[in-house]
Amino acid sequence: MILFRYLMSLIFIIQMYLMMVVLAVVYVIPAMISRNGALAGIHAYCRWVRFSARVLCGLKSEIRGKLPEGEVLIAAKHQSFFDIILICSVSPRPRFIMKKELKWAPMLGWYALRIGCVPVDRGKKGRAIVEMKQAVANNPAGPGQLIIYPQGTRVAPEVVMPYKVGAGLLYQQLGQPCVPAATNVGIFWPRHGILRKPGLAVVEFLPVIAPGLGVAEFTATLERVVESNSDRLMAEAGFVRQR
After folding, report:
1. Is residue 98 part of a domain?
2. DSSP per-residue string spanning 80-95
3. The domain spanning residue 65 has which CATH number?
4. What is the DSSP string of 198-219?
5. Burial class (CB in 10 A: 0-12, 13-18, 19+), 162
6. Distance (Å, rounded) from C-alpha 37 to C-alpha 115?
7. Which residues in 18-93 belong to E strands, given as ranges?
8. Which residue in 87, 90, 85 sits closest to 76, CA to CA?
9. Which of 27, 82, 86, 123 has its CA 20 to 30 A from that of 42?
10. Could you tell me if residue 13 is inside a domain?
11. What is the domain extent for residue 136?
């Protein structure tokens, strides 16, 4: 049975990247014309990944909570590529704070820049925060949902990692509501490796954190809310993180 799951996972991964190429080509002219064209291609790809994960790997996916709309900051738990797919699939106009290296990724990088994603050099630390804030302030992409991963990277379900200050600084700078997002996707779709496990992967949008908190208070509130709800979602799926 496990060999069959590995085989189906491998088939899923291969076709997932092939479809990325196909849809990137199909939507390239609409994407060149407007940001909406690029968003249409990305939304089509996200729907395909969710569909094919369910069919080939038995990995269902579900979005819970009130969907974010308008100009908001989404601060999300990041466990694997699949939580990006889920958030992107339901956000009308998403753009991400992303690591700088991704902008050089074939097709993926161009589409990311086309929808207004903000590349950040994580190795520069303090300088990266300054550049991030400047890029967000000079946003040419128009209104939408700005998505940041406050831990700065993918974090495996069993790992405890503190939240960085970047999300709090953006929250303060933008003066917008923040929508926290919890997830359990790392149980089924790990950071590394081939195996995709069957089950129900969930991203849950949580109650809004209104503008007006200080950076430290916001960061502490965000960490408490996102981590406790991610633990709850993982426990529902049979995984208990040891703190």
Report:
1. yes
2. SHHHHHHHHHH-SSEE
3. 3.40.1130.10
4. -EEEEEEEPPPB-TT--HHHHH
5. exposed
6. 9
7. 59-64, 72-76
8. 87
9. 123
10. no
11. 60-236
